[in-house]
Write a structure and sequence with these properties.
Blueprint (H helix, E strand, L loop, with lengths): L25 H16 L4 E3 L9 E6 L6 E14 L2 E7 L2 E10 L2 E7 L5 E7 H14 L12 H10 L1
Antiparallel strand pairs: 1-2, 2-3, 3-6, 4-5, 6-7
The chain binds nickel (II) ion.
Length: 162
């Protein structure tokens, strides 16, 4: 497993719509392993393939929160249901030293393929739901800074963290 370089904002790969994985090959599995190492090494809780320069619809998630090193891959993930709305602070490994408030669905149902190519369905809420939505945005060339909420009373806090 290798730790890969993380692409940062300004890199066109982060603004490109990633392609579906048509077939899960050894190369896909290697990519997933390397994305897991890269996420854990950088203390991230989620990572999308475009962030390591690969324009394919693959994301990895750290399961069990920041203290866990378990890594789960979702291939061709798709949100099929969403409920509620919650605003919370986010950051991104591709946008160092910047954080901001983003509104996301509170609960989601996601369909995807796992590493073995099996169809899976995940229900997620709160933090995990937020991370999955953030990572799927990456697959569509969308970054959290595109979605910042800049209400007047939050503006001071936001600018301090930029
Ligand atoms: Ni990100």
């Amino acid at each position: 497993m290798a730790v890969l370089n993380i692409r940062e904002i300004g890199d066109p790969v982060l603004r490109t719509r990633a392609k579906d994985v048509v077939k899960i090959t050894d190369k896909t599995l290697r990519l997933i392993d390397n994305m897991c190492s890269t996420m854990i090494e950088n203390e991230g809780i989620g990572l999308a393939a475009p962030q390591v320069g690969v324009s394919q619809r693959v994301i990895v998630l750290r399961e069990g929160g920041e203290d866990e090193n378990n890594c789960r891959a979702l291939i061709n993930p798709k949100i099929v249901e969403q409920k509620g709305k919650k605003t919370a602070e986010e950051g991104c490994l591709s946008i160092p030293d910047r954080r901001g408030l983003v509104a996301r669905a509170k609960k989601i149902t996601v369909k995807a393929l796992n590493k073995k190519g099996e169809k899976i369905s995940i229900q997620a809420e709160e933090m995990l739901a937020r991370v999955i939505q953030h990572e799927i945005d990456h697959l569509n060339g969308v970054l959290f800074v595109d979605k910042l909420i800049e209400m007047e009373d939050q503006f001071d806090n936001l600018t301090k963290t930029r």
